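Help! Submission page says 'invalid entity' but I think these are all valid:
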Amino acid sequence: MIPHSHPRYYSLSERHALETGMRKGITHVQGLLAHGRGEAFDYLIGERTTNEARKAIRAAAAELLLAERPVISVNGNVAALCPGAVADLAKAIGAKTRVEVNLFYRSERRVRAIAAELKKFGIIALTAGGKNMARIPGLQSKRAIVEKGGIFSSDVVLVPLEDGDRTEALRRMGKRMIAIDLNPLSRTAQRANISIVDNITRAMPLLVMEVKRMRAWKKARLSRLARSFDNKRNLKASLLIIRRGVR
Amino acid sequence: MIPHSHPRYYSLSERHALETGMRKGITHVQGLLAHGRGEAFDYLIGERTTNEARKAIRAAAAELLLAERPVISVNGNVAALCPGAVADLAKAIGAKTRVEVNLFYRSERRVRAIAAELKKFGIIALTAGGKNMARIPGLQSKRAIVEKGGIFSSDVVLVPLEDGDRTEALRRMGKRMIAIDLNPLSRTAQRANISIVDNITRAMPLLVMEVKRMRAWKKARLSRLARSFDNKRNLKASLLIIRRGVR
């Protein structure tokens, strides 16, 4: 166990969670590389949730509450890093929420391992198996596979740590995309409607909190908040912070 | 196989090499995370060898040729990414060169796997086993373990992708340290005498080329080149490039 007082406690805990995820067949080797890239940006951002990220989180909370068919997309890193927060978020948004296992490097074995892990946290995840399978138009290979009654027919999708191509293809389908990505220059961050530039382990609990806080709000108020969010401007501000981090 | 024409050929090949390294028991999970961090900095630097890196590579070549007991330190990522370049470099510097397996997360099994891999490239690596083991003063745990006739009694050590603590401890022992590290802010880069801020797969072949080119040089000329190198200034210039990369 890593002592809580360790200055690098959070970062080391995340690495440990991903190592465990690897052993359980949840996390992919490429997921570790991706997390490493995220760590570098987190380091430059100061390993804190910026005001820009907070704004994006609030807008995301409003979008998720306004959605009629919201889906939380879960990959190997998300399942390893914050399965509890995924469960909390789904519960906070309400019964309309679906959680779907969606992998860049899809293998049925890994889909099953992730679904089993999520089940420990009370989540019955969609896995796009058999007759429930649909394909995202314009995407090649297994990356196109989604669940018919899940991502395929959703209106708002939260894609933490997702790939740019899929984000783009889902936007072409008319969906509102919310991304969590530490690299504001990534195609995912650039393509999403709302990009939360933050570490997922910090952003998810905050997102849960905001959803709970806004749950009693009227639709008009939620809409105003969601519409007032400017993703381009927010991303630019995040970039400036990273630039200042490189001293 | 990844087609050579692919725009991300080098980056994908590296990831593939590390995945293979994992399967062979050469690369550690933490090495994948570290490589991911490097990828982020490489992306910001433009995935090219900068003029600053070229200067550092030339100074490093001079230092290695001037050394009486040069050692190339090899870890799991180095063994997976560029074992051939390690062999070429050792040969180019000459018979005085030692190659030593040196791991952050040392396990005898991984040391053996790496030594076996290096052997395929004609390298008989030191492994700090049994009676040949010595310890770096001031370092805790297995990270202190080095070979008596290798790093312990060396005068110049090339540590590609090394950790900051060990670089610092070895400098305290009076050794000249050459690092290859894509993060100019890392403690390794900050502590080394010469920090090559470049991707190891690009830097190593260039280092081999420079060593070959300078092999016929007189000592005085090599010394002048090595002494004229200013690491602090070089690191600052590399940081500026990264800053410009964050647009």
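Support: the input was valid. A stray whitespace character was the problem, and the output above is from the cleaned input. Chain B has a mean pLDDT of 93.
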